[in-house]
Amino acid sequence: MNTTNLNRLKVVLVEQNKTGKWLAEQLGKSTCTVSKWCQNTVQLDLQTLDSISRLLDEQIDIQEQIKTDYDHIQSQITEIESELLNDTMDMESPRYKELIRMDDSLQTAIFTMYDYEDLKTFFENNVKDEMNKYQYQNLMLELEEYREK
Question: Which CATH number fits domain 9-56: 1.10.260.40, 1.10.3470.10, 2.40.40.20, 1.20.1050.10?
Answer without folding.
Answer: 1.10.260.40
